[in-house]
């Protein structure tokens, strides 16, 4: 049986797609953003220790237990399905996030199929850094992609997050030509992703693509800094000065001036 590894499951999420959602945070990420707000996602995938209870039962599984080791797709979706009434009332659903959900393709596909069978709306929050053929396999199972774009200059992308952005950009084109619904998410990392030149490059790339519903600008926040233990990294992060609300609004207007629908926040 396909099992996978998650590191958190958040109910009543309102910033990870439309409506009230459950966000499933999956372990594993191929990028190495030094400002990563979810360092737990980059811990190696757990390959031992299933999350099965001592008596073998799974029906009383807690969120902590689900996030503790390898779990079956059915266990995760059983937890997700608890909030179907809230999804129905709010046009919400489940969001698979991470890390990078495509790092666990079989596990992800099985969960998507289970959601389809129960008419639960699905969103996949992706870095886009996955083999195109693998991403293509989930297109018809996903109701909405939350697609992260960070840095458009390839050299800077490689320097800051450890990989080229070419695959990410190619995959975004592929998704839109296949008719996927896509919301672009831009994390506003001060001085790195939120510069006028980077935003202009994002506009230029995204504007001609069909199926882009919205661009979400995600303001930088410091809530995660308690997770950072390396003093050098902590000092580097302390040097990032979040933009003011007025500055973020100006960025939003910059995109809107090109006909893009923009939302501030997830
Ligand atoms: S893509 Fe997201 S989870 Fe992965 S390293 Fe970057 S910030 Fe962290």
Description:
- The protein is of the alpha/beta class and 266 residues long.
- The protein has a single domain (4-264), classed as Alpha-Beta Barrel (TIM Barrel), CATH 3.20.20.70.
- Helices cover 34% and strands 19% of the residues.
- It has ten helices and nine strands.
- It has helices at 63-66, 73-81, 84-90, 105-117, 132-138, 154-161, 166-177, 196-206, 231-238, 245-256; strands spanning 4-13, 21-26, 70-71, 93-97, 122-126, 144-148, 182-188, 212-219, 262-264.
- It has a nine-stranded mixed beta sheet with strand order 3-1-2-4-5-6-7-8-9.
- Strand 5 (122-126), helix 5 (132-138) and strand 6 (144-148) form a beta-alpha-beta unit.
- Helix 2 (73-81) packs across helix 4 (105-117).
- The longest helix has 13 residues, at 105-117.
- It is globular and about 45 Å long.
- 38% of the residues are buried.
- Bound molecules: iron/sulfur cluster.
- Iron/sulfur cluster binds next to loops.
């Amino acid at each position: 049986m396909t099992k996978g590894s998650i590191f958190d499951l958040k109910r009543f999420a309102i910033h990870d797609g439309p409506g009230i959602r459950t966000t499933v945070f999956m372990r594993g990420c191929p990028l190495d953003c030094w400002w990563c707000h979810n360092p737990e996602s980059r811990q190696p995938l757990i390959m031992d220790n299933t999350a099965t209870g001592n008596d073998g039962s799974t029906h009383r599984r807690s969120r902590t237990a689900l996030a503790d080791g390898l779990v079956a797709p059915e266990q995760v979706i059983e937890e997700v399905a608890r909030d179907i009434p809230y999804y129905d009332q709010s046009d919400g659903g489940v969001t698979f996030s991470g890390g990078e959900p495509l790092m666990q393709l079989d596990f992800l596909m099985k969960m998507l199929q289970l959601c389809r069978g129960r008419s639960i709306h699905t969103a996949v929050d992706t870095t886009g850094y996955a083999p195109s053929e693998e991403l293509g396999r989930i297109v018809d199972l996903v109701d909405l992609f939350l697609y992260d774009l960070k840095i458009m200059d390839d050299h800077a992308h490689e320097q800051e997050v450890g990989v080229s952005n070419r695959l990410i950009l190619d995959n975004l084109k592929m998704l839109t030509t296949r008719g996927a619904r896509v919301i672009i998410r831009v994390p506003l990392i001060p001085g790195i992703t939120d510069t006028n030149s980077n935003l202009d490059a994002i506009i230029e790339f995204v504007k001609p693509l069909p199926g882009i519903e919205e661009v979400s600008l995600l303001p930088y926040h410091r809530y995660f800094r308690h997770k950072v233990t390396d003093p050098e990294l902590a000092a580097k992060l302390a040097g990032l000065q979040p933009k003011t609300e007025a500055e973020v609004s100006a960025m939003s207007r910059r995109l809107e001036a090109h006909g893009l629908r923009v939302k501030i926040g997830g």
